[in-house]
Amino acid sequence: MLIYLDNAATTPLDQTVRDAMLPYLEGSYGNPSSIHAFGRQTRAAIDHARSQVADAIGANPSQIVFTSGGTEADNLALIGVMHAQPVEKKHLITSQVEHHAILDACKYLERFGYEVTYLPVNQQGLVQLEDIRAAIRPDTALISILHGNNEIGTIQPIEQIGHLAHEHSILFHVDAVQSFGLEPFDVSALPVDLVTLSSHKIYGPKGAGALYIRDSVKLLPRALGGAQERRKRAGTENILGIVGFGKAAELVGKHHIARREHLVQLKQTFIEDLRSRSLDIVINGHVDNSLAHIVNISFLGIDTETLLIQLDMEGIAASSGSACTSGTLSVSHVLKAMHLPDSVTNSAIRFSFGKDNTVEEIKAATEKIEKVVRRLYR
C-alpha cells in the first residue's frame, strides 16, 4: 500500500482539470498571438483561465500575469519591482524562513547593490511586527513575506504586515503558493500589492503559475521578446498549463471549505495517532496557527535521511522540507532560523496531506511510522 504524504511538494492532477486540458493537447493548437481563428480560439481559452484565477482571489483579470510557476512569479515580483524603483530606493525586507525562490532572488539583487534585511523568526517560525517596524528605512521599497510556510506550515500575519507596509508607502508582496486554496485570500480586502500563486499545489498541472499585480505597481519584465502578458512576461503562453491552472483555480472557489475541513481532520488524526504511540517526537512550527495540510515532526534520535529512506521502503512518501532543495538533505534553513536544537533539526520530516488522502490511510501511515521508528531505535 503506497501512501502519498508529500502534497506540499506537488499534488496529483485532478481528473476535472485533466478533462479541461485535453482539447488543448489534441485539437486547439493555435498560437494565441495569431489573429486567425486558430489563434483566437486559444486566446479565448487563456482569457477565460485568467478570469478563473482572478475570481479565486478577488482580483480583476487584468491584474493576473501568467508565469511558468511560483518560482518565476517570485523572481518577477522581487527583481521586477526593485529594478523599477528610483535609484534612492535600494532596500527590501524579507524573512529568514522564505522559500528559496525569494531568498535566492534577494541574493541576486544584492549583487547589484540592493540591500536586504532578513528578519528573524521566533521558535514557532513567526515574524514579529516590531522587527519589521525596526527594519523599515527611508529607502525601503518592498517587503516580501511568505503567507503559509512550505516546510512547517506556520501562517504569517500578512494583514497586519500589509497595513504596516502601506503606512510607510512600501509595496508588499506575499508568496501564497502553499496557502492558496486553503486559507481565505481576497486581494480586494487585503493590503497586498503582489501575490504569487502556483498551479501544481492546487491539483493543477506543473509549469503554470501567476503573479497578481495591483494596478498601481510598477514592474519591469524579466523575460523580453514579445508583448505577451501585457509586456510583463514575454514568450508564447503555455496554453495547456494555463487552461489547467484556470480550471484548478475554479475548483478552489467551489471546494476550498470542504477541502480544508477534510485536511484539518487528517492532520488532527495524524498528530493524535502518533502521540498515542508514545514516540519521542517534537512538532515544529505553530501548532494552531498553521496550514491545514502541513505538519513538520522531529523523531528524536533518528536522522532525517535514514528515516526518509525507511519510510519510502514502507511505501510512505514524505520529505525533509522544500522539494526545491531535496536531494541535498542538508538541515532546513527554516528550522535553523527558528534556533531549534540540533537533535530537532537533524531529525525533522515534513508530512503533507491532500484532498485524496483518507483517514484510513493516515492511520495506516502512523502504524507504519511507529514500526519504522521502533526498528531504528533498536
TrEMBL record:
UniProt entry tagged with the keyword Iron: yes
Keywords: Aminotransferase, Iron, Iron-sulfur, Metal-binding, Pyridoxal phosphate, Transferase
Aminotransferase class V domain ranges (all copies): 3-364
Family membership noted in the UniProt record: Belongs to the class-V pyridoxal-phosphate-dependent aminotransferase family. NifS/IscS subfamily.
The EC number(s) this enzyme carries: 2.8.1.7
PANTHER family for the chain: CYSTEINE DESULFURASE (PTHR11601:SF34), CYSTEINE DESULFURYLASE FAMILY MEMBER (PTHR11601)
Catalytic function, reaction form: (sulfur carrier)-H + L-cysteine = (sulfur carrier)-SH + L-alanine
GO terms, molecular function: cysteine desulfurase activity; iron-sulfur cluster binding; metal ion binding; transaminase activity
Listed cofactors: pyridoxal 5'-phosphate
EC top class named in words: transferase
Name of the featured protein: cysteine desulfurase
UniProt xrefs under Pfam families: Aminotran_5 (PF00266)
InterPro entries from the UniProt entry: Aminotrans_V_dom, Aminotrans_V_PyrdxlP_BS, Cysteine_dSase, PyrdxlP-dep_Trfase, PyrdxlP-dep_Trfase_major, PyrdxlP-dep_Trfase_small
